[in-house]
């Protein structure tokens, strides 16, 4: 787990260096505006549980969100083997959050091109996504 978090942390630093210092959000009308909404979702997140329930899997789930991009990895903690990995771009407009899958490993390759829409709520270090997969995430510090 520590190796995966170190890898994702390093990737976050790399993405930070490659992006502009100004935070921006792609709005559904096609415009880009600076906002603190983006800062609220930026970070490395670990899966806590499904909304209204307990964690459904012993596997570890990590989500990285940085400005216009996101990625998700799920791995088996006993073997450190990646089970699922995919990511792409997102749109954030108020409480509306949509992830489009632009790349994936063999396991989730059939998802490429799909967009999943959520209602998002970030309160401190907790992010709740309500939609096709309703989940609670905690910010990794």
How does this structure look, described?
This protein is of the alpha+beta class and 141 residues long. It has one domain: Lipocalin. It has 2 helices and 10 strands. It has helices at residues 2-18, 36-41; strands at residues 25-26, 32-33, 43-50, 60-66, 69-76, 81-93, 96-104, 115-123, 126-130, 135-139. An 8-stranded antiparallel beta barrel has the order 3-4-5-6-7-8-9-10. A two-stranded antiparallel ribbon has the order 1-2. A hairpin with a 2-residue loop joins strand 8 (115-123) and strand 9. The longest helix has 17 residues, at 2-18. It is globular, with a radius of gyration of 15 Å. It starts with a helix and ends with a strand.
CATH-assigned fold name: Lipocalin
Mean pLDDT equals 79
**Global shape:** globular
| Fraction of residues in helix | 10-25%
> What profile does the largest beta sheet have?
8 strands, antiparallel, barrel
List the uncertain runs: 4-35
Q: Measured on Cα atoms, how large is the radius of gyration?
A: 15 Å
Order of helices and strands: HEEHEEEEEEEE
Determine and state the CATH class. Answer: Mainly Beta
Second CATH tier, the architecture? Beta Barrel
Strand order of the largest sheet: 3-4-5-6-7-8-9-10
Structural class: alpha+beta
How many DSSP E strands?
A: 10
Query: How many H/I helical runs?
Result: 2
Number of spatially distinct domains: 1
Task: Supply the key terms.
141 residues, alpha+beta, Lipocalin, eight-stranded antiparallel barrel, 2 helices, globular
